[in-house]
Amino acid sequence: MGTMVEREARARLTNYLIIKSVAEILFVGALAVGFYLTAFTPFFRGSLDAADARSIAGWVVNQARPKAPVEVQLYIDGRFAGNRLADFPRPDVLASGRAEDELHGFVFETPQLPAGEYEARVYAVHESGKEQRRTLQLIGKPLLFNITAEEAKEKLQGRAQE
Amino acid sequence: MSMKDEAKVPPFEDAKEERQSVAVNEKTLAAWEIASVTSSFLIAEWMVLPFAGNSRLAAAVPLALALGLMLLSHRARGESARELGWRLDNFKEALRLLAVPMLAAAALIVGTGFLLRGLHFTWGQFGEWALWLPLWGLLQQYVLQGFINRRAQIIFGRGSKSVLLVALIFALLHLPNPWLSIATFAGGALWAYVYQRVPNLPALALSHALMSIVFAFALPPSATGSLRVGIKYFG
Which of the four CATH numbers 3.60.15.10, 2.60.40.10, 3.40.50.150, 3.40.50.720 does domain A44-161 have? Predict the structure, then answer.
């Protein structure tokens, strides 16, 4: 079973095996890089500028689609706290040449929280794979902020009045 | 060893050494061919779907590379289509060998399905499977027996070791579906055994299609994972 391979045919077969291995490595590499670029677009630019007891604000631009507003999600201490479109006017972002228009800011009202220290993270939402995937990418750096007992009480009273 | 000593080596020793070297290379080459074809199918099953979605073009790349290797290898080894099992003269003989184990396996599968309350049947699904399963089975049997089995025999010779290797590779290609992996291990062993005695691909394809239909209709879809393999098994 399985006749012996002549020297020349063996060389051809071996060459094909090597070429096939290299082609498959390149193919898998291309798939992985293509997937990464599609699922985790490298074109988001933005910053989380401020976080305190009242609001959490920043800006984000998708440089691949600079005029489209980006959806952002706020997480406080790792827990989802809200989402919205980053379409708040930010003339400073336009002036610095980071966007083609000024509608790329976001402002979240800080949710009611007891006194303490918290970490705010804002993520840009990116859809890919014909809406099969939604990935989150951190915008800027996480910010730590404090809520004093007084601020917590004020907010509670404000809510009660509303 | 000096020139003088080399000259003393009898010519038949040289020839023996060369034969051994060629034999080792033959086995290495066959093992490399098996690994290469298997890896192509694993790439198609495990890498293409998560990275490229349902792109048939992307899935076709590793499969086309594997097909190219198989065709080149047949040519390099001077294997004819008839030798590979593309023939009908021994069709009945192969079916005769397959009949009893197939009936026993079908009874076992149906019995298991009865116990699991999984027996079900729809003409629509049957019609769909009856159309493409024989062709799909033929393709799988060609790769598994016409290529992998023949290369396994170069490494281990005809017998249990090469049959076991074929069955293991067939089961590996059906992971992580547990029931299907067990079934394909058993089926792979039977088909490899029969192929080594009576190489006939159409008979194996027919057996493959019939057993797949029995398997799919006898066991509940929750157990068979709707016959999904690779990354698709996870939904």
Answer: 2.60.40.10
